[in-house]
Amino acid sequence: MSGRTEGGEKTRGFAKTGAALGLLAGFLLMGAFGAAAQTQAAPSLQNLLPPGSGAASGQIVQMLGLLTVLSIAPGLLIMVTSFTRFAIAFSMLRSGLGLQTAPANLVMVSLALFMTFYVMAPAFDRAWQNGVQPLMRNEIAQDVALREIASPFREFMLRHVRDKDLRLFEDLADSSFKTEENGVVDLRILIPAFMISELRRGFEIGFLIVLPFLVIDLVVATLTMSMGMMMLPPTVLSLPFKILFFVLIDGWNILVGSLVRSFS
pTM of the prediction? Predict the structure, then answer.
């Protein structure tokens, strides 16, 4: 017992000594940084932005714009690509099966994301080759690069947007801004029209996905009621049958193949 007590006291002593040394090192580093900060004065704002020159301020504004675009990049990915349709279809599938957490949200979103990359690969390649690479090599101006980057996504959205949705936002604009310029639809009109078109198609596909599972639920519920099993929830018995049905028909292959073909 005395040996254990001495060992514990030594351990606590070492811990206290280590903590003290750590604090001392921290204070020494803070002092060194403070001395360095005093020897080197920070540049003033007037040196960064000299009067009469808008070049530095313009670069700062461009940097802020770039950071803003990067912060909303996930939202842009959802708005102008096929991600919405895939995400809705996979969510409807999980709801139809009656599974709450399987597959996990990470699996569903990752599958929808990679299927989006698969479908949008031609648009991404064109945007990279015609817009991003020439801009990085300083071969084209920024406005031309933005137009070339947006062009393949604009064509993709025009192929899959409904004319009814497009006319809706054109009417709602009410001459507040030009809906078309040189025969090109404004993105402020095209993007929301494309999104509600994708939402509509996603729910249409979801209805077709959920319908066979609903039939299985009705059959199982009818059988349990006829057999007098009033206290047994029908979903407990229908769940394995729905999973077995989905596996036997190779449901993932059919669903993913149909979703990809819907964009061709």
Answer: 0.67
